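notes to self, project folder thing:

trying the whole complex as one job this time. last attempt i did each chain seperately and stitching them together was a nightmare. two parts in total, labels are on each line so i dont mix them up again. if this works i'll redo the older ones the same way
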Amino acid sequence: MNDTLSKKIEATALEVRRKCLDIAFGMSPKATHFGGALSTVDILATLYFEVMNYDVSNPTWENRDRFFLSKGHSVMGYYATLAKAGFITDEELFTYGQNETFLPGHPVINKEKGIESTNGSLGMGLSVGIGNAIAAKRKNLTFRSYVLMGDGECNEGSVWEAAMAAPHFKLDNLTAIIDRNRFQQTGTGADIMDIGDLREKFSSFGWHALEINGHNVTDILKALNEDSRGKPKAIVAQTIKGKGFSFSEGNNAWHHAVLTKKLYSLGLTECGGDPNADK
Amino acid sequence: MQISSRSVKTWSVIGARPTYGLAVMELAKHREDLMVVTGDVSSSAGLDRFRKTYPEKFVDVGIAEQNMIGVAAGLADNGYNVFTVTFAPFQVLRCLDQIKVDLAYSNIKVTMTGLASGLINGPLGNTHCCIEDVGALRSIPNLTIVSPADGVGIVKAVFASAESDQPIYIRLSGGSNNPIVYHDDIDFQIGKAIEIETGNDLTIFATGTMVFYSLQAAKILAQKGISASVWDMHTIKPIDETALRKAADKNKLIVTVEEHNVFGGLSSAVAEYLSSYKSDSSQLSIGINDFFPKPGDYPFMLKQCGLTPEQIAQNILSSLG
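result (full assembly):
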């Protein structure tokens, strides 16, 4: 991959981060799920702005690639990405957190707006991705299904029901990406429930499993494009919770926190925006 | 699907589950979009022939009900008319969150089938009996709950469910040699109860296997000069409010009979509606009185729970004073 392409994706990721800042500050003084959203942004940017086939003007196109946000709480990065992609307007984006919004704190299926599934209860997205991947096979469609999961989410037993099923059905049109930020709500994964070597676990279940730096878009792109040799693909993306901002990187207080005016300004500086800009 | 005296007799002899399998087999001839998803129960659901005949319309996810619902949702979202099948406790309780999120909250149409609900699995113990499914599901919005009375009811429910656009649960109860309620075709509409017997003194609303037992109880009552209306409440949600109003306007006693906990099922659905409907009627709820029955065969289970025709009749007589 050439440098120009990675720079382009990185620049887009920065814009998505900027939108996340705006959403979080718009919600202030209420807290938002910030850290787990920021760790996903580079993955989302690579998927939506380079890898996935979709048509914003025809969101229900039968052969579009599907994306499922199984870690539904990291919705801020997802909504920001959908806004950047043109599925939702900025005006709609800033209804996030407001009464009667169609963009609540966990995504609700809304095909017209590019939201493929309802999530929030952890451990469910991979199964829905499998249903889609089986449908594609049976209908001879070429679309791919991408499921973004959390490493904490992999505590859920249902994840492993699905992990067992995908290789059984030989779903080489399915990619699971695990956001391995090593934190969950109340502490580190190692302390709360140590899930060990996720790449090895998926591999032993029969997946083509890779481990990458989830913030290096060159690595992400290479992993997404790699041939999975007839198997479903699992990409364990090593990430940093709260990635992109000095105050939130690796700081689990930002799992769910309030973005103050001061930090908003700092954040804008750090993602190349104007620190003096008001919301 | 052709309903003749011969087919009705066959469905009675083979019972609910194989009848369901035959109905789905027939449905496949009418619906290109049919897809059956099971959790390692194809033989228990009478679906072995289906699996062999239509492998492209069949997905077995193994013993993994949570995954089963998610996979079903994904398939349904791609235009398939999906039926999921497994034993009632696992079809409902093991994957209740998936049912809520993937189907009901998302409003994705899948027909779920709970095999051997109620007490028929008595010898296997309460893990395999299911007296909680209706109660658990009834509190979830966007779901329809159907509980057919016999073979004809099952066939009609399967075809009606395929046409519906809302997630549905079909509750199958009873075993082989299931008694026959309907000898001919019926007008089966989801949400519309069927008045089988018309009487003057009280109204019985029954569901599933209890429809036949209630008809028998009504015969016992008739011998004592009491005439009872008997309705087949094959749809528990949405409940047929018109039928309830009709009964409450007409009779002082309304009886519900179900092979389910008296909490949460038909009894609750009827009581919830009638509690805010002005009438002089009171309700007698006959079902399993919120306990885990001791194991045993089906007749033993029914007797233990007060669900034989004689017990139903006696309970009603006591209530009438």
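what i see at first glance: The first helix of chain A runs from residue 3 to 27.
need to look closer tmrw
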